[in-house]
């Protein structure tokens, strides 16, 4: 495909570098990067890509993603301009209406204790969401403190940790199906699992989250506590793509997590070029400065092979890898 004359229904950039849009800071360019600013533009962008015979790849905050070097053919759609958080205007508004109200809702929302919900477009950052929770005294997803990425990516990946997951607060997700139409999926009809929203090829356009209410002070203290715990155990300031592997079935791994298995294989600090298995948390690979995607991807494969040969456990990737030719 592709000429610079191609018309798209939203902001569009040809040959767009992607490294700076990911946390790992590696990788090449997208043939096209589309940047919708609203759910409707996102829907139209998905439809336009599909009309041209392309399955678009969706880029949230790029926090669980490694983009290969070179040029990625086709279309990447980024959600970073879709960063609206809204309070529903009335408690008797259903979740669908809460997402429908859009930019120009003019009625003051109900007191937060009467309707502790937030309607978010897909590109709301989880950092921004946690800040809003802190300000409003909303409780339920304090553990998202320090988790980078967008809420759309968080819902698609079912971001979580020990004993919590994003979907526990979901009331409804607004999806865009491959045929370019909206579909509202209530929580009770969804089947998220460990690190997987199980949404198939649907794209998350928005989500309504339901919280509990608490004191602003206590919510803030819990957020700070989760932040401190994360800082103490993970390389949060380094360039990385989060946990590389899902935790395996404890029956197969003797109860060891993915990070513990990698550590037990003596792989902490192992490098290929400037890609390095984190000394702080063995399930993280960090870009120690100037790494290429090829180095990062090779180190991920090396770790997986070593764990298989030393411990007999086949680790499954949690990280998404965008390779030319493969699906996103
Ligand atoms: C320092 C650090 C700490 C982390 N801690 C945690 C943690 O505690 N728990 C945890 O679960 N994760 C953690 N992660 C990983 C990451 O933050 C989460 O997986 C997050 O949900 C990724 O969101 P994203 O928007 O960045 O998605 P991306 O990395 O952009 O994309 C990930 C996948 O989601 C898809 N996707 C993105 N947006 C959409 C959308 N709108 N609709 C459909 N599909 C979409 C992409 O196509 C891709 O397949 C951490 C990462 C880092 C770097």
Give a short synopsis of this structure.
This protein has 328 residues and is an alpha+beta fold.
Give a written overview of the molecule:
There is one protein chain. The protein is α+β, with helices and mostly antiparallel strands. The chain folds into three domains: 11-78, 2-Layer Sandwich (Uridine Diphospho-n-acetylenolpyruvylglucosamine Reductase, domain 2), CATH 3.30.43; 85-219, Uridine Diphospho-n-acetylenolpyruvylglucosamine Reductase, domain 3 (2-Layer Sandwich), CATH 3.30.465; 237-314, UDP-N-acetylenolpyruvoylglucosamine reductase, C-terminal domain (Uridine Diphospho-n-acetylenolpyruvylglucosamine Reductase, domain 1). The chain has eight helices and 19 strands. It has helices at residues 39-51, 95-100, 126-136, 151-157, 216-233, 250-253, 258-264, 293-311, and strands at 11-17, 29-35, 57-59, 65-67, 71-78, 85-86, 117-121, 138-139, 160-161, 164-165, 170-176, 182-186, 203-210, 212-213, 239-243, 271-272, 275-277, 284-287, 320-322. Strands 6-7-13-11-12 form a five-stranded antiparallel β-sheet. Strand 16 and strand 17 form a beta hairpin. Helix 3 runs antiparallel to helix 5 (216-233). It is globular. Bound molecules: flavin-adenine dinucleotide (FAD). Flavin-adenine dinucleotide is lined by residues 23, 57-65, 79, 122, 147-150, 152-154, 156-157, 159-161, 203-204, 234, 236, 240-242, 320, 328. The site of flavin-adenine dinucleotide (FAD) has 33 residues, from strand 3, helix 4, strand 9, strand 13 and strand 15.
């Amino acid at each position: 495909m592709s000429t610079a004359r191609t018309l798209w229904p939203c902001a569009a950039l040809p040959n767009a570098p992607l490294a700076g849009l990911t946390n790992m800071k590696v990788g090449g360019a997208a043939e096209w990067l589309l940047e919708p600013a609203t759910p409707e533009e996102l829907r139209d962008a998905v439809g336009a890509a599909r009309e041209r015979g392309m399955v678009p790849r969706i880029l949230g905050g790029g926090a669980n993603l490694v983009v290969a070097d070179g040029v990625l053919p086709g279309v990447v759609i980024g959600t970073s301009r879709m960063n609206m958080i809204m309070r529903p205007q009335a408690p008797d508004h259903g979740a669908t209406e809460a997402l429908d109200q859009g930019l120009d809702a003019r009625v003051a929302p109900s007191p937060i204790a009467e309707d502790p919900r937030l309607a978010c477009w897909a590109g709301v950052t989880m950092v921004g969401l946690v800040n809003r929770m802190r300000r409003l005294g909303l409780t339920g997803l304090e553990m998202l403190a320090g988790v980078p990425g967008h809420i759309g990516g968080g819902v698609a990946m079912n971001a979580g940790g020990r004993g919590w997951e994003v979907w526990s607060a979901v009331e409804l997700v607004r999806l865009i199906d491959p045929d370019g139409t909206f579909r509202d999926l209530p929580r009770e009809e969804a089947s998220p699992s460990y690190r997987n929203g199980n949404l198939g090829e649907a794209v998350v356009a928005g989500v309504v989250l339901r919280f509990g209410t608490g004191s602003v002070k206590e919510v803030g203290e819990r957020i700070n506590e989760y932040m401190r715990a994360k800082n103490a155990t993970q390389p949060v300031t380094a360039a990385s793509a989060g946990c590389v592997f899902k935790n395996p079935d404890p029956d197969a791994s003797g109860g060891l997590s993915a990070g513990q298995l990698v550590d037990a294989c003596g792989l902490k600090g192992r490098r290929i070029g400037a890609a390095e298995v984190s000394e702080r948390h063995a399930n993280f690979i960090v870009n120690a400065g100037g790494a290429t995607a090829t180095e990062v991807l090779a180190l991920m494969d090396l770790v997986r092979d070593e764990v298989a040969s030393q411990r007999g456990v086949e680790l499954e990737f949690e990280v998404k890898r965008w390779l030319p030719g493969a699906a996103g």
